[in-house]
Backbone:
């Protein structure tokens, strides 16, 4: 059907649905379901309602913590080369319907801005009505919305196709990838295309998960080889990387409140839990005598470019190489045993206490590998963990790449607030 003729038909279908009359054609089931939700929720069909836009800092923080960030190259490679940039835009939204990334030709982006279809905007279905982002999130499946299938009339000149992206580790809905454009850009194959790219992105996440399990296995295997009894290494979602003394299971359900120490784990019973880089070591404790937690960490900054953190626990030790930024942060925490807030760390790292978003994002990554060793509120090493800091013999060689004010002072033998001389 011609796009304009289809738009006229759908406007008649929508008008009949709003008036409670018999429509000239039945709306598609997913659209009819969405319209029922809009009517029940009180969304106005002719009023363009919008919620507060995220600030630039809030948007950047969401980007940093979103797993969708890892698959942006896959989405771009799958969509942008075949996208007529003068007619379409690609949008990536998180599980709340917040638009985090948007790419396309400037003329189409300006048109999208007039609709409020901008980075930081909230396109939850309950806010803006039936649309390719919010409706795909609610339905949990790919959705194409054409012209007057949008519940709110100001969106009728647009068409969009959105497909949800799920985390293969736990099935969690991460967000939606969407291709949108003016009415004339509608094509029936667009939805299948966007869905295929979303599946490719999920496959990339699955491959990254398998690689992370292999890294965890490499660390855990030597520890398990020395342990008597039953033990296994799992990632934060309970996927098994290595096992000894037990029949292997693909995944172990972990309790919601989970961390170092003693925990009751389904299928295993009472366990002693120790942190590993990227996961946990679970030792089945039949006698109820053991305690667990990291007891000591050695932060070795003595060799430029070869910084590491070695964690010692009841089952042995393991090491984690550190990036330049993570080496800086751990140095600052080692020098501040009482802990530091994100603002204080931002001041010591950048000379700007307002750069808390970057600090929180980087520390979130550090804590994935040092779970149970680092705590937050404030950020600090766990109270029961002994911290040993190995510096270079020449103070001037301490983290030579760093321009952080606190590190520069340490090279000169000076101290700052909260730092140990």
Residues:
């Amino acid at each position: 059907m011609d796009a304009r003729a289809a738009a006229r038909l759908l406007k008649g279908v929508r008008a009949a649905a709003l008036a409670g009359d018999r429509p000239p054609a039945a709306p598609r089931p997913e659209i009819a379901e969405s319209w029922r939700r809009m009517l029940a929720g009180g969304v106005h069909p002719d009023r363009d309602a919008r919620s507060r836009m995220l600030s630039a800092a809030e948007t950047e923080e969401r980007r940093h913590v979103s797993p969708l960030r890892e698959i942006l190259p896959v989405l771009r490679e799958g969509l942008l080369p075949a996208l007529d940039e003068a007619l379409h835009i690609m949008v990536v939204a998180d599980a709340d319907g917040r638009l985090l990334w948007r790419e396309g030709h400037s003329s189409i982006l300006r048109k999208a801005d007039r609709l409020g279809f901008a980075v930081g905007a909230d396109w939850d279905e309950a806010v803006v009505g039936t649309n390719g982002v919010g409706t795909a999130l609610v339905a949990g499946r790919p959705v194409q919305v054409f012209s007057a299938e949008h519940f709110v009339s100001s969106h009728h000149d647009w068409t969009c196709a959105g497909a949800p992206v799920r985390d293969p580790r736990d099935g969690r809905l991460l967000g939606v990838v969407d291709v949108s454009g003016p009415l004339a850009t509608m094509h029936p194959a667009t939805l299948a295309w966007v869905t295929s790219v979303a599946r490719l992105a999920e496959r990339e996440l699955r491959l990254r998960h398998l690689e992370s399990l292999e890294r965890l296995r490499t660390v855990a295997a030597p520890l398990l080889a020395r342990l008597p009894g039953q033990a296994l290494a799992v990632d934060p979602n309970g996927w098994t990387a290595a096992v000894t003394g037990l029949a292997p299971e693909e995944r172990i359900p972990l309790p919601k409140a989970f961390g170092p120490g003693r925990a009751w784990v389904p299928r295993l019973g009472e366990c002693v839990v120790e942190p590993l880089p990227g996961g946990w070591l679970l030792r089945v404790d039949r006698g109820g005598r053991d305690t667990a937690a990291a007891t000591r960490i050695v932060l070795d900054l003595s060799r430029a470019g070869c910084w590491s953190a070695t964690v010692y626990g009841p089952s042995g030790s393991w090491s984690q190489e550190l990036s330049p930024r993570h080496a800086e942060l751990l140095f600052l925490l080692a020098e501040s045993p009482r802990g530091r807030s994100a603002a204080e760390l931002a001041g010591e790292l950048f000379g700007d206490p307002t750069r808390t978003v970057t600090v929180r994002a980087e520390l979130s990554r550090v804590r994935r590998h040092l779970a149970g060793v680092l705590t937050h509120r404030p950020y600090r090493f766990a109270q029961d963990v002994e911290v040993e800091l190995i510096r270079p013999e020449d103070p001037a060689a301490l983290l030579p790449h760093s321009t952080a004010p606190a590190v520069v002072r340490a090279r000169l033998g000076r101290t700052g607030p909260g730092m140990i001389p």
